[in-house]
Design goal:
The complex is a heterotrimer of chains A (292), B (318) and C (552). Chain A is an all-alpha fold. Chain A has 10 helices and no strands. Chain A is elongated. The N terminus of chain A is likely disordered. The chains are: A mainly alpha (292), B mainly alpha (318), C alpha+beta (552).
Amino acid sequence: MSAVNSSAGAETAVARKKLGFGFWLCIGWLAAMVFIALFTPLLPLKSPTANFLDSSQGRPPYSPSWKHWFGTDKDARDVFARTLYGARISLTVGFSAITAGFLVGGTIGVMSGYFRGWIDRVSSFVFVVLLSFPSLVLAILLTSLIERSLLTVSLVLGLLSIAPVGRLARAATLQYSEREFVLAARQIGAKDRHIIVKEILPNVAIPMSSLALLGMAVAVVAEGGLAFLGLSVEKGITWGGLIQLGSDASKTLEKAPWISFFPILMLFLTVLSLNFAGDRLRTFFDVKEMTL
Amino acid sequence: MRYYVQRVALAILLLLAVSMLTFGALNVLGDPLFNILGPVAGDVNNPDSIKMIELAKSEFSLDRPLPVRYAIWLSDFVRGDFGVTFSSTGQPPVSGVISERLPRTVTLVAMAQLFAILVSIPWALITASRAGKISDRISTLNAFFLVAMPNFALAVILKFFFSIKLGWMPLTFVADDPLSSRLFQMILPALTIGLPVAAVYQRLLRTDIITTLQQDFILLARTKGLSRTRILLVHALRPSLFSFITVVGLNTGALIGGSIVSETVFRIPGIGSTLVESVLRNDFPVVLAIVMIVASSFVIINLLVDFAYTLIDPRVRR
Amino acid sequence: MVFTVACGGGGDDDGSTEPATSDGTDTTGGSAAPSEEGEPVVGGTLRVGLEADVDGLNPTASALAVSGLTMAQAVFDPLFTFATDGTVVPYLAESMTPSTDFTEWTLKLRAGVAFHDGTPFTVDAVIKQFEITRNDPLVGLAVRPYYPETDAVAKIDDLTMVFKPLEPSQYFPSALTAQLGYIASPTWLDALAADPTLEQQPVGTGPFQFDSRTEDSVTKFVRNEAWWGTDLVGPVYLDAIEFYPVPDADTRTELLLNGDLDIIHTTDTNQFETYREDTSLTLDISEDGEEYFLMINTAKAPFDDVRVRQALALATDRQGYYDLFNGGEGQLANQMFTPDSPYYNPDVTQEGNDPEGAAALVAEYCGENPVAEDGSALCTDGKVNMEYQWSGPSVLATRIADFYNENWSSLFNVTFDEKSQADHIQEAALGLYNVVGWRQFGAENPGDDRVWLECRNIGGISLNWPRYCSEERDALIKEIANPANPDERTGLLQQLVQNIHDSYAYIFMTHSSWAVVHTDKVHGQCDRIAPEGSPLVCSTNGRMYFHSTWLS
């Protein structure tokens, strides 16, 4: 999961301050996903849990048709409805996790970078401890021990993003707090809080926020991985869970690949959009210098 | 010298912190007695059940306070005694489970890393030398796609096309097969983890090589009449190799994470899939041992990469 | 697998099988006669896929379900067994003769038999086994009617003894065809008392003996070179058997198809078509055995109220279940007998598929604002609170749970709980459940199913899992065991079926179709005979036998 690394490459040899058509296409897709996630119960969809048994078609799974655009799974449940409903948990967890991560990690990072001293030492150590687990391992460990609701799973993934976000925020803050205008402000005796809010945060927040989309991509993939292993929200419909159900038995995958493939497509397009748009933003704000 | 000692000490401290965190989480958030005995753990009216509960408590030291249990566990762990699994008989011993399965995961991760390196280097060289052209743009897009596809989804897709539809690769891993068969069975799982990482490597390497290619000494080499291939392989690659190796080392963590998913999809009994199984079964000793092993390898590899870094560039030693 | 079996829960008297393999279809190549398959080959290790692992293989105490019984049958021999024509014939025992009033049964043991550890097989071993079994809180319940507290036996000599069951029973030997009849080494039983972990290393008289075991992974048995049956019944061909527990039915099938397993059992009817398509596999289906049903704990609120039980039945879409999960195989069940059984009661049908009726009952019940013992409300928002448990991990079982959720969620607030099969059986025995998926009944001698139905088997630990007590039922059962007029038995059994229906403690779903599937390397599954010559069944409700099996 190393989506955050060095800059985009030769195409920015001439710094192009345009976001581009691709960017807006991705934003469009994401907007559509958000719309779906918010309004699925109101949309004219079939029920995602009902069994649409149809003896004239024989035994499920039924292949895609006008009645079921994405076909049905082995229990004759409509894959199209389930895939759209899957967006709800996957996107909500992704969004909540990265928000929590940015808020908490960002705050800790800025504090450490500005105040240094013991705050910095303690938080750096904590970050390093959190980062010495491959993130999936820590996620698996924590989600297995708790009651897995939308809130708790988001919190766990949020916890995992605190360290990377915190480190970046700290680095950015470090850079800015050594600039002349900050030193000057301190000289005049301005309050720390004032400095942080007025000088540091605006400069740090802009590049950090361009990383938010990339962070959300990571969170969505992480939730998908957990769901695939059975460790996401209990009894929830998630893309990872749908993919797992459709691929667990080779026979199912062989005879009815649509059960897995449509959720895979949705997940892929969403992560792709997040990655692409996030990358574009990062280039736009020219965040090269920030990545460690 | 002091630097090395400091770093090693920090690493040990780190691992201790990791172990405390994990041990604490498992024992505080979970219910070990229930995981060992099942419903009998709550059946306090039955004298037979009470006997079993007492037996389990003494066997697994559950009646002692948490710090004491941690100390007991730690002293056993460093001596190689990982304890016994949570079953009413305590069989099999965790170290047995791990020693049987760890080699498979190590092989898988090593193969994945190998594929990633072997694929990314030529890929980076070719695209760097054609920077900006159509083929480069297409390749960048491909790399993007590869990175955007979560590894479990990639695993399903690869399994579908190569195992099921084309039948080129076997469907399952059979522990009793000869070594060559087993290695062949691991190709697809290794590719699943390795390809996305190859895309990451390629991206980095390409940028580095492009920068290097713009240096003066390359121009000098061209005027000297050296062939393009030679320039690329020998001169352009070398300065980038070092940071490449660093990234390779640092990405091992991602590979280990990926192996969990890959082993689950392709049904390879390595420590990745065992972690998932044990976690779902709440078999704490196994989970604890695997987490520690993974974290230790992670920390050690990072340490080694760090040391290698300082050997080459002493300025970094701060 | 999908639902637990309790047929092994305790005294297993379900030797359910019927002549040969009933409506099962055999794919090509599945003949039984050795001459068509060639000469048996000695050697090889058979790899068996089971639906679950066991906690231990102790006939006096372990809760043995299908998988446990399959393993047990390799290391133990039952005293008696069912022949293909349905009669009970001696196996490890030599004979069993009743007194004229059926209050005493004289058992004669076979001479010259020894356990795997060398201990001689004598009446003392049998007595010790029954003593210990009687004292077990779970299995003891099954054996007590045949081995009461006092004056249970009389030893005549080393090979002869007399049983004095609590009540007269005309069918006693049939109770000794499974777990109750597996005789274990007394030396081993003594060692067990000191070290319970030895439960994992059984010592019996069987054609195979214990070699090694890794829980939830593999259990290995090797040939018993000194098996008593070698001359009387036939030689043991296999060198060893390895049992692999694979709870997920899809995985089990995949392993068989890939050649990682040689033989498996399954009740997952969705796979039958796959098996039939593959001509290298032999498929043996038995359908006259157990039933699969939803079992309700009548001792615990809210299901202590019959209206709630009825509501659950009416809310369940049995036809939909059949369409989705049986896919044309097997048949829906109304009662514990199939329509072609002589004891079938045509007046008894299982209710279901009536959501309005269910809603009315739930509305009535919840309208009374019922409260549990601890003060918590039994209904929330007009829906009844309940928990549904099943054994796993199994993808199929999870799908079924999702299906039930669809059926019930408009009237019930359901929490779902998946447990390992061993935990599942334990919780059921302790009465810690509301509704479970379960398999039961189908004893070849239907009277032997009494152990799950009698009032006296309700207690802290209960083999009468639904904890439903009916004096009328108990009286029927006693008469069935010892009918004054054997012709009346059919009528009595039909009355029993009606009584069971009226308790609403079970929601009958399907008659279990047990399939035993093996590759073309496996032979001799159906070649077993009893010492006195009767041919024996290939498999019993998914329980497999291996002493006549050989690998090519």
